[in-house]
Design a protein that fits this description.
about 40% helix, 4 strands, alpha+beta, binds glutathione, about 80 residues
Length: about 80
Amino acid sequence: MDLKLYKMDACPYCRRVMTYLNESGRTDVQLMDIHADKENYRTLVEVGGMDQVPCLFIDGKPMYESLDIIEWLKAHPQEG
Ligand SMILES: N[C@@H](CCC(=O)N[C@@H](CS)C(=O)NCC(=O)O)C(=O)O
């Protein structure tokens, strides 16, 4: 499964998801910083449809809302 988290450092909702990722030790989520790379920002808006982070792309399909993202990650543990 391809997992990409669109995020930015200053966002408390992104930090909430990052805290979960760090605490769980999960390593299968690629981090896509929207400030560090403008291409990430463009993809977020064009594919996701909203200028809002955090957003988890699950096999290319966007999921917004930090609590929904954490819930989804918990329900779908890292494989392998
Ligand atoms: N309820 C959302 C809030 C996300 C949110 O407000 N993110 C801010 C950054 S901290 C944002 O992207 N704001 C820009 C916008 O909503 O257009 C969540 O929990 O993920």
